[in-house]
Design a protein that fits this description.
Number of domains: 2
Distance between the termini: 23 Å
Shape: globular
Radius of gyration: 18 Å
Strand order of the largest sheet: 1-6-7-4-5
Strand content: 35-45%
Helix content: under 10%
Structural class: mainly beta
Mean pLDDT: 77
Number of helices: 3
Order of helices and strands: EHHEEEEEHEEEEEEEE
Largest sheet: 5 strands, mixed
Low-confidence stretches: none
CATH class of the largest domain: Mainly Beta
Length: 195
Amino acid sequence: MIVTGVGAATQIKNHPTRSTLLHKQDFLQSSTSNIIEALTKIPGVSSLSTGPAISKPVIRGLGYNRVFTINDAVRQAGQHWGDEHGIKIDKASVNKVEVLKGPASLIYGSDAIAEVINVITKMPVENNAIKTKVLSNYQSNNNARSINANIAGNLNGFNWNLYNPAVVAANYRNKYDGRVLNSKFNQLNTRGYKG
């Protein structure tokens, strides 16, 4: 649910900001190797890529520090520094992504000239429940193998979550060059919270 407050009554077609929401299922059905490549399905969103693991969002022709990226309420600024720095968010850990279009710089500051990408990883489970999940994926062009293990609980108001996504890929192969050396990558991530 996205709630937007305004000072006077208005219609959504007259409101300057629009938002697009992508859920985990959308990312699971995508064969991309990172979260930014998966976002390119949204009109106006493309990516600047320097390999299978490094992608930056480009929205309406603007990129780098003109796209404001938030991951669980923490600003992500790694993509600002150069071509070899992408957004460091693991696709397997993402629960949903909100893309806020329009003059978001009024709310988020001058870095939000293009749009705001709000990435939400893990959501709390319902009360008095424990859930586990294991997801796996394989991509044949670079032998990319991924696994995402997650265990979360909410017992009498004590909420906790632990997840460990990992991706290991070999050198990419194409029909002209064979193996493209130095294109392999490893992404290992462990995150969690309690409260």
